[in-house]
Amino acid sequence: MGLRCNPMTCLYKNLPCFGLPAMTTFTTPKFFMASALPSTSKEDETLKRHFVPPREVHAQVTHSMPQQKIEIFKSLEDWAEKNFLIYLKPVEKCWQPQDFLPDPTSDGFGEQVKELRERAKEIPDDYFVVLIGDMITEEALPTYQQMLNSAEEIRDETGGSLTPWAIWTRAWTAEENRHGDLLNKYLHLSGRVDMRQIEKTIQYLIGSGMDPGTEKNPYLGLIYTSFQERATFISHGNSARLAKKHGDINLAQICGSIASDEKRHGTAYTKVVEKLFEIDPDGTLLAFADMMRKKISMPGHLMYDGRDDNLFDHFSAVAQRIGVYTAKDYADILEFLVERWKVKELTGLSADGRQAQDYVCGLPPRIRRLEERAQGRARQAPSIPFSWIFDREVQL
Length: 396
Ligand SMILES: [Fe+2]
Ligand SMILES: [Fe+2]
Known about the structure:
With 396 residues, the chain is mainly alpha-helical. 58% of the residues lie in helices and 2% in strands. The protein has a domain at 74-101 and 108-267 and 296-327: Ribonucleotide Reductase, subunit A. Helix 10 (249-279) crosses helix 11 (281-294). The longest helix has 31 residues, at 249-279. The protein starts with 41 loop residues before the first helix and ends with a strand.
């Protein structure tokens, strides 16, 4: 998974618009419910902000799956065996991080590392900030597996369950694990970044979790993951394109290989939701509209490095400016899903369903108009220091 804000509430002109901004949200009255615990000092307050689960971010509902829908997932197991698991790749056919990295057993290891570092010298700081943010997001994988396992209908009951949903979740996690691993090792070897600050950010992020607003509801969870996997496919794909532009073919291959995994994952989740639309069009459409009203918050939205309370917003702003993941991408993904799930063509809907249909179909052009207006009002964004690159300044 990977990465990002809401066109209506962007702090900076170029902040991509995906859901909830990071720590700035915490100053809202809602969040202060989390801070309603006894507090002795400002320091305690800050600590709590980074360890108390963000349960107020969406005024969270913990279980919204209606009883009558639960059976739908049971009845889909045979279908999932044949149509969902085919999108997993056998381990023997998967790339591994070592395929793209200097070989520590070779005599040429030192030379290979030197070459990697020479190439990395040509890459600008803003690119590194975005690659680091993406790597940190990938590294918070325990949170995403936990999210998939929160929905009772598809969860891995034993840790080794043989339902297709559980098999998928474990194998998907195992595939995803290679993403953070590869980017982490590459960044470590590049010599351009403050690994300790990055490692702290990963620890904070896993400790904070996330608030995707999926309410232990597999409809919401699968719509969220369909969106999110496509978002990571686009962002890693753009990182590959820019790495090539900066003359680093090896890094382009790294990002491109990750992007192709994300595309396959996105196709798989989108297929399941397509099936849900087939058997329960009204319920699936209501879930889709619900998810989009809440906005898709990015998995790393609670990112913190021990210094910058708005780190996620800042990282997202740079990603938007250099074109790795933008508000336009958000609208494009939504449009893609609306078409893929044939939302416009759905008939026989309830009154609520028709309302949801109008809302979802009208959303991409609305987001694009808001983004164009925001661009029109844009002012020169400031440059700020990022601890990940030894406090060198990067323009937002
Ligand atoms: Fe990933
Ligand atoms: Fe993925």
